[in-house]
Design a protein that fits this description.
single chain
């Protein structure tokens, strides 16, 4: 048995790993070396080629020669060098749309509703040096194929090459929504950090940036007509996202095949609004905060007040103009009813109207959602709005499950399309220890740390019927930023967030042992591109696939 295990080890050490992430739906490869010609060109055929596709072509050409990623084998590709002299050379890649398809910008296609996005592509890389091709029915599909093409290549001694030609790939995502959520309210992240994150997301074909822009702690989002919120609610005048910043982020994301969904969480998580409008918020900074909120500071909208409902509707309307996405998240989580029990204005209004708190919440939700729906937006809510509160939601509303994956079935049984984001699989902040002061033995509420392997093993349709499974849009990793900032953004997120990117592109059931060498490769490539992804194992292990398995 030991001899057999050793033979398997030797075989895996020297067999090339085609390190694409996410794994394509269908791939055929060979074992020939193919070099990239120094004058390699990428051309796009057809009329009306959009500028953002041409820009993507330029970025790809640059990355092909700038990545300088040595193959993850002992010697980092030195053993490949003798094959270079006899290897054919690839001088061109041609991108073209299928017959009958017409060009649109990557951005416009990425910003469609998730169900309407077409990301399929066909890639052919011959071994004989004749031209490589990528074809698709959409510009977005061409862009996804271009991203895959960029991952095929390694460098040794100033030669860019692959050892796996020929390559034929037919690919399309298993799920239309593949996201990443970043909280920029607990701690502020500069625009450049967000852009770097978008670059990494694009590399693994994540197509949705869920921007949790504001919360009880700060309001950094500058919204025209409501600038008093950021003036009084941002941590400082330097820690804001101006209208220009938002346009920059949305444009940068769109050009990389990513839609930006903003979240303005209501009616909870709104203590910061009291800085500008104290009459609109109940329990503002009340003590003890743990009685009236899940984390400090306490404070929730007095949604029973019609003026507050009207104000939030107008706020949503103004914010919606900044974001072309069809999706707009209104939150709806962690509403603390004890706060309203002690809030005199809320109780007075309820008694005067004869309504219950739940009935008032229903009115608030319907009116604020109607504002968005009238603007062509689809509201997105956290699971409590379906499972805890008795509110009326359009069946077009999308629901994110976050508390537990065990709640998925209850949501789809009600007929809503669902986005996976359960804390027991996809929360990146879990396992970081407690952050609340005066509690030295405290741990994070969602312990333990959620490894990439754990997320990768998730089954999106577990315990669902065939009809219920059709309601799964996809899923995402999430980073709540109580203990994160620009200083640790990359290592907390990468490469763990890539595990859900593959899960929801390639589909469930992937083998963790087979995925690890490819994820190593992704981590190394990310670092070559300036993203500080963590090491998954000692480099000795990364260079010897399988050698550090428990059973090796």
């Amino acid at each position: 048995m030991k001899l057999l295990a050793f033979a398997v080890l030797i075989a895996t050490m020297y067999s090339p790993v085609l390190a694409l992430w996410p794994q394509p739906q269908s791939i055929e490869t060979g074992s020939s070396t193919l070099r990239l010609a120094p004058g390699f060109q990428i051309t796009v055929t057809g009329h009306g080629v959009p500028g953002d596709l041409l820009a993507a072509v330029g970025r790809t050409k640059k990355a092909l020669f700038a990545d300088k990623l040595g193959r993850l084998v002992v010697g980092r590709g030195a053993a490949d060098a003798p094959t270079f002299a006899q290897a054919k050379s690839l001088s061109r890649l041609t991108l073209s749309l299928e017959k009958g398809a017409s060009f649109a910008s990557i951005t416009s296609e990425a910003q469609k509703a998730p169900e309407d996005r077409d990301e399929a592509y066909h890639l052919v890389l011959p071994a004989d040096g004749s031209g490589a091709t990528i074809t698709a029915n959409s510009t977005l599909g061409l862009f996804r194929g271009l991203t895959t093409f960029s991952q095929l290549w390694y460098e040794h001694g100033n030669t860019v090459y692959t050892v796996s030609a020929p390559v034929t790939i037919q690919d399309a995502p298993a799920y239309p929504y593949r996201g990443f959520m970043l909280d920029t309210a607990r701690n502020y992240f500069p625009v450049d950090d967000i852009k770097r994150t978008l670059d990494a997301m694009s590399l693994v074909k994540i197509n949705q940036f869920h921007w949790h822009a504001v919360d009880s702690q700060s309001f950094p989002l500058v919204i025209p007509g409501f600038t008093d919120l950021s003036d009084k609610g941002a941590y400082s005048s330097d820690q804001v996202y101006t209208v220009s910043d938002v346009r920059d982020i949305v444009s940068y994301a769109g050009a990389r095949g990513i839609d930006v969904m903003v979240e303005i969480d209501t009616p909870g998580h709104t203590a910061i609004i009291s800085q500008a409008h104290p009459d609109f918020v109940a329990c503002a900074e009340a003590s003890p905060w743990a009685t009236y909120a899940n984390e400090p500071p306490a404070g929730q909208l007095r949604f029973v007040n019609p003026d507050v409902t009207s104000y939030i509707g107008d706020l949503f309307s103004a914010a919606a103009k900044l974001f072309p996405s069809t999706l707009f998240s209104t939150g709806g989580d962690e509403l603390n009813t004890k706060c309203y029990d002690i809030d005199e204005p809320t109780q007075t209004a309820l008694n005067a109207s004869g309504s219950t708190l739940e009935q008032a919440l229903d009115v608030f939700t319907q009116k604020t959602h109607k504002v968005l729906e009238d603007k062509g937006k689809t509201p997105v809510v956290w699971e409590e709005m379906v499972l805890v509160h008795n509110v009326t939601l359009s069946k077009e509303t999308k629901v994110i499950v976050w508390i537990s994956s065990e709640n998925v079935k209850a949501v789809v049984e009600k007929g809503y399309k669902l986005i996976h984001g359960a804390s027991d699989y996809f929360y990146l902040d879990c396992g970081g220890g407690g952050w609340v002061g005066a509690n030295p033995s405290g741990n994070s509420w969602c312990d333990p740390f959620k490894t990439w392997q754990h997320a990768y093993s998730f089954d999106p349709v577990a315990n669902l019927t065939a009809e219920e499974s059709k309601l799964i849009l996809g899923g995402q990793h999430l980073l709540w930023a109580e203990q994160s900032g620009p200083q640790n953004l990359d290592p907390v997120v990468w490469p763990r967030a890539a595990s859900s990117a593959e899960l929801f592109w390639s589909g469930p059931g992937g083998n963790v042992s087979a995925a690890l060498p490819r994820l190593h490769d992704l981590s190394y490539r990310l670092r070559q591109r300036g993203v500080n992804a963590i090491a998954l194992q000692p480099e000795w292990c990364a260079l010897r696939p399988g050698a550090c398995d428990l059973t090796a």
